[in-house]
Amino acid sequence: MNNRKIFIISMFVMSLLFIIIYNASKDRNDFIDFLDKTNKNTEVYVNYEKVNNPRKIIESLKNIKKIYSLKSSPYDGGYWKVKIENSQSKIILGIKKGSYYKNEYWIYKKILDPHYSQPFYKELGIVKTNIFDKYIEE
Prior knowledge:
The model has no long low-confidence stretch (mean pLDDT 81). The termini are far apart. The chain contains two helices and six strands; from the N terminus they run αββαββββ. The longest helix has 34 residues, at 3-36. The radius of gyration is 18 Å and the shape is elongated. By secondary structure, it is an alpha+beta fold.
């Protein structure tokens, strides 16, 4: 393969990576903006159970970070559901416990796309917290 073809292919791959990273960052920032707009009337449910102190969960979720971990991965199986809603909007999250760090949770946003018959979950990032431990069975 000549240098020109290699250059074109590498630029294409780099462009795709940039788009993927940018979209993931934008989704995470949009999620944090949503959390910032919550108020005292916001309700939080974990596994369909209303939480007594929703501010604790909301503040914990604001610490979401990009996924850098090479050691950890989310446990297989279903997602634990977290629903955050107020009078104007709601968001449904899927959460999976990390496999390596005890207090690590992988956060996903539930996406309802009319082009698909089933909803899917889009990865947002990782939160390191103990806040979900009391809701989630090992």
